[in-house]
Amino acid sequence: MKETYKEIKTIAKTTGLEVNVNRTKMLIHSRRNPRQTGEINMIGDGIEIAEDFIYLGSKSHKDGEENHEITRRVKLANNAYFSLLSVFRSKDIHRAIKTKIYKTMIRPVLYYGCEGWTLNKKEESVINSFERKILRRIYGPIKENGIWRIRYNKELYKLHKEPEISMTIKLKRLQWAGHVQRMDKERIPKKILYSTIDGRRHAGKPRTRWIDAVEEDAKKLMGVRNWKRAAQDREEWRGLIREAKARHRAVAP
């Protein structure tokens, strides 16, 4: 790591650049909850050992868990929603316009970087509940037998004409998986996908790997067992994703 840092500094100097030590952090990923704090000396520079770090808009935490980033994304999307609350409350704006605003200004905030997520049932429930909160605001209650009530989930998605957002995230993950599968073997994402990490894991049920989630989604959502072979054909893969989206839009809960 020190050799890499030294090489970066050397190359930077040849182009007239300098490494900003205050913006450079060291993050140790481990499920053993390492207690390293403070700084590490890196060729004369004091590099801070951080518990988490935001890179390209996504947060990485020292324990390697994704729930930190997912919780953060829900909060950011909720902030975007409340900043537009006056629009969603307005009776002068049509539902179709409100739906477009949700799709273009709130939903992308929620699932930014979702292609790398491995969602569990609890996280899926949180994300779907957040979306339904907004959809209920857009479509409002319904009057039944003279009594107003909130719309059921099936009624919401029938009006929305889109699958649940957790389903959208899974389809986006499959889309990215196909793209990585078609990459040259020398590309970094392809190397990471098929690399293995040495060491011993903790006792108990292992965490679901990203590639395991992709394989499961390919079987359940697309009916494809050998997704790696199917993904080699770009057009076929795109067609399978479109079919899966249309099918699950029709049977949204």
UniProtKB/TrEMBL annotation:
Name used for this protein in its record: Reverse transcriptase domain-containing protein
Superkingdom of the source species: Eukaryota
